[in-house]
């Protein structure tokens, strides 16, 4: 289980190695992503709170990066954080997310990026529920939910 101290170490010293890397030009990203996805994922934008696809959605499944398909979060770690964006307590794997310090907009935050394609997903904060205390606040535009197969 990741904790805030782990996130700080990753951002300061070295992020976990991704299972693979995907590098594309911004022109290639622009043809692959919708304008809203491009603005968020490649230009580090954000979507309006509460008016997004997964804020109030709690169906079972796994959330993947829209850009590269990497699996990022499981629905079992999603919770209602009253933040306006989908919130998770843990990534699916230790190396799913890359972390970086973000001091834009006169704030100090920890940016969460896809570790495979480097796309901006959102931010992670140390004010989530126990036992991890983490809140991954992620833009719906950066995610796609893959339904879990049922027997």
TrEMBL record:
GO terms for cellular component: cytoplasm. Its EC number is 1.8.4.12. SUPFAM superfamilies: Mss4-like (SSF51316). Signal peptide: none annotated. Keywords: Oxidoreductase. It is an enzyme of class 1 (oxidoreductase). Pfam families: SelR (PF01641). It catalyses: L-methionyl-[protein] + [thioredoxin]-disulfide + H2O = L-methionyl-(R)-S-oxide-[protein] + [thioredoxin]-dithiol. This is peptide-methionine (R)-S-oxide reductase. GO terms for molecular function: peptide-methionine (R)-S-oxide reductase activity. One of its GO terms (biological process) is protein repair. Residues 26-148 form the MsrB domain. It comes from the Bacteria.
């Amino acid at each position: 289980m990741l904790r805030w101290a782990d996130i700080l170490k990753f951002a300061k010293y070295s992020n976990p190695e991704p299972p693979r890397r995907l590098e594309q030009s911004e022109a290639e990203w622009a043809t692959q992503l919708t304008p809203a996805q491009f603005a968020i994922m490649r230009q580090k934008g954000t979507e309006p709170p509460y008016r997004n696809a997964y804020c109030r959605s709690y169906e079972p499944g796994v959330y993947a990066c829209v850009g590269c398909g990497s699996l990022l979060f499981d629905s079992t770690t999603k919770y209602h954080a009253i933040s306006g964006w989908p919130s998770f307590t843990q990534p699916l794997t230790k190396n799913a997310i890359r972390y970086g310090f973000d001091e834009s907009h006169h704030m100090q935050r920890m940016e969460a990026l896809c570790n495979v394609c480097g796309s901006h997903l959102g931010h992670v904060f140390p004010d989530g529920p126990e036992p991890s205390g983490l809140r991954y606040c992620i833009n719906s535009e950066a995610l796609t939910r893959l339904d879990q197969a049922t027997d």
